[in-house]
From TrEMBL:
This is Glucanase. InterPro entries: Beta_cellobiohydrolase (IPR016288), Beta_cellobiohydrolase_sf (IPR036434), Glyco_hydro_6_CS (IPR001524). Gene3D superfamilies: 1, 4-beta cellobiohydrolase. SUPFAM superfamilies: Glycosyl hydrolases family 6, cellulases (SSF51989). The lineage of its organism: Bacteria, Bacillati, Actinomycetota, Actinomycetes, Pseudonocardiales. It comes from Lentzea fradiae. It comes from the Bacteria.
Length: 284
């Protein structure tokens, strides 16, 4: 239904490139980041979610948009840098239902709630059950209202949750009703390590394996043991089909901060920092 990935002219790096034509870093960021297909993240900042999603997907022409739903209550419970989310489970159900309705019959890729099924160690059993039910509801809404959307539930990364454990969480959250799952979102593990992990998760899923996608936005130099704006990382493979997965995608926006930490102690999570972006081009 599409002929290539959508390049978002309103991404944070694209807006920065337009606004800073005289900056010495502009050419490198334009050539290597803002001109590439990158996912658009949606959350509480997006306003009316149905119209925001519909407007975005409706403006991509024949290209395939990649969207991220990031509004689960208690978001980033353990990491803390990206906290927030909908105010209650009922509010979340209304939000994600409207998200799916905003896509409708148009083709899209959606990564559902990064970290949500991996970030359990700061939650009690009741909170875990509540969150799992919200993700399962999301899968039902996309299946019913967005039939041409390929939905991938987030499955953490190669060194976070054992593959068998993650497979059980995905199964409980309804992965059988969607296209598959995503790994390495906003992280740095190599594509090879991510493929190995994702294949193990897929192989452990009850009822048969599922396709997966990998976030390659910042994994060009692999993982150095840090997750929050580490130095020495590099852009990875630009969005493509195949590559060991169903798709390799730039899910995290290169240059967007992970939080007030690492190389960007003064930059809030999700805010674009041109130096972070520039450093990813050259592996600094």
């Amino acid at each position: 239904m599409t002929d290539g990935f959508y390049v978002d002219p309103q991404s944070n790096p694209a807006v920065w490139v337009r606004d800073h034509p005289q900056d010495g870093r502009q050419a490198a960021i334009k050539a290597n980041i803002s001109s590439k297909p990158i996912a658009r993240w949606f959350g509480s900042w997006s306003g009316d979610i149905r119209s925001a999603v519909s407007g975005h997907v409706g403006g991509t022409g024949s290209k395939l948009p990649v969207l991220v739903a990031y509004n689960i209550p208690g978001r980033d419970a353990c990491g803390g840098h990206s906290g927030g989310g909908a105010g209650s489970p009922s509010a979340y159900r209304s939000w994600i239902s409207a998200f799916a309705a905003g896509i409708g019959n148009r083709p899209a890729v959606v990564v559902v709630e990064p970290d949500s099924l991996a970030d359990f160690n700061c939650m009690d059993s009741g909170q875990i059950a509540e969150r799992t039910a919200m993700i399962k509801y999301a899968t039902e809404q996309f299946k019913a209202k967005a039939p041409n959307t390929w939905v991938y539930l987030d499955a953490g990364n190669a060194q976070w949750v054992p593959a068998g454990t993650m497979a059980g969480r995905l199964d409980a959250a309804g992965v059988r009703d969607v296209r598959g799952f995503a790994v390495n979102v906003s992280n740095y593990h190599t594509t090879a390590a991510s493929v190995t992990y994702a294949n193990a998760v897929s192989g452990a899923l009850p009822g048969g394996g599922k396709p997966f996608v990998i976030d390659t936005s910042r994994n060009g130099n692999g993982h150095n043991g840090e997750w929050c704006n580490p130095g020495g990382r590099k852009l990875g493979t630009v969005a493509r089909t195949g590559g060991g997965a169903e798709m390799l995608l730039w899910v995290k926006v290169p240059g967007d901060s992970d939080g007030r930490c690492g190389k960007a102690p003064g930059v809030d999570a999700g805010q674009f920092d041109p130096q972070l972006a520039f450093d990813l081009v050259y592996g600094y």
